[in-house]
Amino acid sequence: MRQIFLIFCALPAVAQAPLNGFADNGLDREVVAAAQFNLTRITDQNQLRDFIGAGILVKVPARGAGFVLDDRIGGHASANGNLYRSARPYTERFLTRLGAQFVARFHGRHFVVTSLARTCAYQERLRRSNHNAAPCEKTSHTTGATLDLRWSDLTGRERRWIEGVLTSLEAQGLIQATKEHFQMVYHVMVYPPYRSYHPMPPSLPQHKHQHTQGRLARVHRPR
């Protein structure tokens, strides 16, 4: 953990981002993080396919422990929509860990992932039907590092637990997260140092749960 801490100290603008999302320049922080971590934006499906082939992105299974992918992921693509079920390896690792801890704590329940990697071309098509959608250079989805988790399906206890996890990881400089009220998702950009993160084993549910989550902004701007 000491080594990871030193990495974060070298990137204070990213590591110190509080969990209050787009309402506090979260989009700008994501742009800065993409530049600092040298995350290339994906221009089109050809580059998306190349990134998957090179291992820069990895395919995410349609269903895993504690999570499922929304069938509509890639729905704005004219063809090969399954290519959009991909993410950076450390983002896939974050999802896998979160899902495993979620299903262990909530006894077989799962959450839904509504978005993963996008290309700039895909983002522009999305903007035609969603006027709140950010341009390619402003959304971290086009780096492949970001995913959206739908919170509207979750119980209050489930939301509090996920928000506590996101708050903790953001405080450690591992992610940038926002609770969106327009799309009803947790928008989470996972930073590359997450690949060196070793979480504690998930604890069992307790009768008294602590309300440790930070304040997530009520925002109406999409990713």
The backbone outline, from C-alpha atoms, is: globular
What series of H and E elements makes up the topology? HHHHEEEEHEHEHEE
Distance between the termini: 31 Å
Task: Give the strand line-up of the largest sheet.
Answer: 2-3-5-6-8-7
What's the CATH architecture name?
2-Layer Sandwich
Query: Stretches where pLDDT falls below 50 for ≥5 residues?
Result: 1-19, 207-215, 217-223
Structural classification: alpha+beta
Give the % helix: 25-40%
| Rg for CA atoms | 16 Å
Number of helix segments? 7
Strand percentage, roughly? 5-15%
CATH class: Alpha Beta
What's the number of structural domains? 1
CATH T-level fold name:
Muramoyl-pentapeptide Carboxypeptidase, domain 2
Label this structure with key terms:
two-stranded antiparallel sheet; globular; 7 helices; Muramoyl-pentapeptide Carboxypeptidase, domain 2; disordered C terminus; 8 strands
